[in-house]
Write a structure and sequence with these properties.
Blueprint lengths: L2 H28 L4 H26 L5 E3 L1 H8 L11 H20 L1 H8 L3 H25 L1 H15 L3 H18 L24 H29 L6 H15 L7 E3 L5 H4 L12 H15 L1 H9 L3 H11 L1 H11 L6 H13 L8 H23 L1
Antiparallel strand pairs: 1-2
Helix pairs in contact: 1-2, 1-3, 1-8, 1-12, 1-14, 2-10, 2-12, 2-13, 3-9, 4-5, 4-9, 4-10, 6-7, 6-9, 6-14, 6-15, 6-16, 6-17, 7-8, 7-14, 8-14, 9-17, 16-17
Length: about 400
């Protein structure tokens, strides 16, 4: 067996975990999760990655790797206003269960998947951009209040990105830890090295949270993770098993939600690290990388509580800066897609601005209203076009 099968899986895990764990922790803080619940959140996600990736890869003999929904985590974190949670972890878990159920329905009920696919990609991308932009602007707000800590990290990001955009965020994370230690800004860890444990969160089903978070979480996870993940497999010459993948990731999402974890999805960016010829010249052998990918995530699951404690000891500006820099790439892609087509540009801009505004009506968050306004504007534009014709 080639070592490249192992190394590609390891790089995929390092990029996926290290590049976005700060965003998941920001999501946990955004819904008021305790340190124990945050650790359980991370641990449960790592377990789902560790189980679903080897299972799908083995069943279908192709390199199918899974990931948590990073855009979904950003959406969850954006529910907080001024850093203050507006919904609790219990209501958030109820929304996670709804999103998981809808993913399962897409696997079972084909018309639902077809209806979801009818949402114009530019409008969905604009909603995602509206969610992400707040994280990036928050980073620059922190740069004005704590320039000593933030600006050097931005400089490191720009410098490393010239060589490798993939490793730029990880370089910022490592540099941030070293820089914070040099400045004497790291607090003592509340716990030392310890094995992880899971905490059960009893869900509540608040209709406004289900509509304002659960439905957008499902849409973002499908449009920004699952569909691109299938596209990566197709680009590598594989025929993605969409039904099986949605069923297994949907079940994993439902089973992990009571432990605080949000949706499990297909990997997109990290999948490209495991599906190409660098993994193995023979496409029929690349599926083995999914086995090692899962193994590395199970190792991370064992130390999830230590990871959370370590991040909690860092200045909040470090977490916000890493999260903001990590989301510049997805924000760029979302803006490019959202504004790419002239006929949907106005609805997309309306969606983006409404989502980014933090609009909340009847207790329902801005992501839902942004999408609803965009779809309404698109519908009215189509009527006007028919009338003019």
């Amino acid at each position: 067996m080639r070592f490249s099968i192992v190394s590609s899986a390891l790089v995929g895990v390092l990029v996926g975990f290290g590049g976005s764990v700060a965003i998941v922790l920001a999501a946990a803080q955004g819904v008021g999760a305790t340190p124990g619940q945050s650790a359980s959140w991370i641990t449960a996600l790592c377990i789902t990655m560790g189980v679903t990736s080897p299972l799908l890869s083995y069943l279908h003999r192709m390199p199918i790797v899974t990931a948590w929904s990073t855009p979904g985590a950003a959406l969850i974190g954006a529910t907080a206003i001024g850093g203050v949670p507006t919904i609790g972890i219990e209501a958030a878990v109820g929304a996670f269960l709804l999103a998981a159920g809808l993913i399962l329905l897409c696997a079972i009920v084909k018309p639902l998947a077809a209806a979801m696919a009818r949402i114009p990609t530019p409008v969905a991308a604009a909603m995602l951009a509206g969610v992400l932009i707040g994280f990036v602007t928050d980073m620059f707000d922190l740069a004005s209040t704590d320039p000593e800590l933030v600006l050097p990290l931005v400089a490191v990001f720009l410098a490393v990105r010239m060589a490798s955009a993939t490793w730029a965020v990880i370089a910022v994370l490592v540099t941030g830890i070293i820089w914070a230690a040099f400045l004497g800004r790291i607090e003592p860890m509340e716990t030392g090295l310890a094995l992880s444990s899971l905490e059960i969160v009893t869900p509540t089903f608040d209709p406004t949270v289900l509509l304002g978070l659960g439905l957008p979480l499902f849409l973002v996870s499908m449009a920004s993770q699952n569909l691109p993940g299938f596209a990566v497999l197709k680009a590598a010459g594989y025929e993605p098993p969409t039904g099986s993948a949605l069923t297994i990731t949907g079940l994993a999402s439902a089973l992990s939600a009571p432990f605080g974890a949000h949706t499990t999805t297909m990997a997109a960016i990290t999948a490209s690290l495991c599906t190409g010829p660098d993994t193995h010249p023979d496409p029929a052998q690349r599926w083995k990388s999914g086995l090692f990918y899962g193994l590395f995530y199970l190792i991370l699951a064992a130390v999830g509580v230590t990871v959370v404690a370590g991040f909690a000891a860092l200045p909040t500006a470090i977490i916000a800066t890493v999260a903001g820099l990590a989301l510049i790439g997805p924000l760029t892609g979302a803006l490019s897609t959202g504004l790419s087509t002239e006929e949907t540009r106005f609805p997309a801009v309306l969606t983006l601005t409404a989502t980014a505004s933090g609009l909340s009506l009847f207790g329902v968050g801005s992501a839902f209203w942004g999408l609803a306004l965009g779809m309404l504007a698109l519908f009215l534009d189509q009527i006007a076009k028919r009338v003019r014709a």
